What we know:
Layout: E1 7-9, E2 15-16, H1 18-26, E3 31-34, E4 39-40, H2 42-50, E5 54-57, H3 61-69, H4 71-74, E6 78-79, H5 100-118, E7 128-134, E8 137-140, E9 156-158, E10 164-166, H6 175-184, E11 190-194, H7 197-203, H8 215-220, E12 225-227, H9 235-239, E13 250-253, E14 257-262, H10 265-285, H11 297-309, H12 350-371
Parallel strand pairs: 1-3, 2-4, 3-5, 12-13
Antiparallel strand pairs: 5-6, 7-8, 7-11, 8-9, 9-10, 11-14, 13-14
Amino acid sequence: MKNEVKSIDVSGLKLVAMRDAKSALAAGATRIVVAENCVVTPSARDFLAQHDIEVVAGCSAKAASSAASSPAAYGSPKPVSNSSATGGRPAANSRLFFTPEAEAIKKEICEVGRKLWMRQFVDGNGGNISYRIGPNEVICTPTLVSKFDLKPEDLSMVDLDGNQIAGTRPRTSEIFLHLEIYKAVPEAKSAVHCHPPHATAYAITGRVPPNLVIPEFEVFVGKVALSPYATPGTQEFAETVLPYVKEHNTVLLANHGIICWADTVTHAEWYAEVLDTYCWTLMLASQLGAPISYMTEKQGTDLLDIKKRLGLPDARFDTSKMKECQLSDVDAQGAIAVTPNSCRRKTDNPADADLDSLVKAITDAVMDEIKR
């Protein structure tokens, strides 16, 4: 029968991962029953929701089945909730740090750390990497450790408020930058912050690279945003990226470096590679003495279609902003650096309002002097 409820009891598990979700689907389940303190990984939760499989807690499969026909006897099964006293999130579960899934993520983070060091995207103990493994759990790199030397046992885990809940080494001081991204962008599962030299050269000159030059850059990164400078490690610094991260997966940090987010640690690192190689290529091209050729608007639109199918963000998907966020930087043909456009209207930017006030004040003062 179409509406028949089939419950599967997995209340003996402390963690429900993707493999458990797929097993439930294969068994024809419409509901899985978990323990009160069970952690359901984000990927498993999304998979279950996609296939209309309900997750309930606090009763056995038999009780849950009976409750469907006799709620007075057992009470309705309680859905697993993400609400708690901590900003609507569940209490962080430190046990998640020691699961097989976490161990795999730790190894990937260490591998990506070595890639960043080998490509000279980080030096000393610079840069940081994180992965959101649970609704309120984020694995991250520690402070004061070279990314080349990282080992899985060096990593830490924090909640979305930055409190360290697992790991022996202190977490990175810049974790708040990552956490603001996770809170603003639900699909973000990993973030990589580093200092690739060619991209950082743009960041310290207050410029961004033009677009519609190389297809791979257009699809995987596209228009780049530039966030204002603030002292690294502070909450103010973390919040500088908030106006940009929903429509950009890569942001230049003024006078600092870059931050990239993605669905995996490896993919976030890929975006850093794509951006820096693109910036480097533009710099080399500028030395050849010939104009840079650009793709057409039609070719750019085709690439945007590919990007949309891949589920990657881009400010240019919002056609209402196309005047502020054109496909190509038409006023800067041939340039390898352009003034950043956040694709937001001036009235949305406090800095623009301050500038307008300053211009008006100067104009009024000049006019007063002329009238005297």
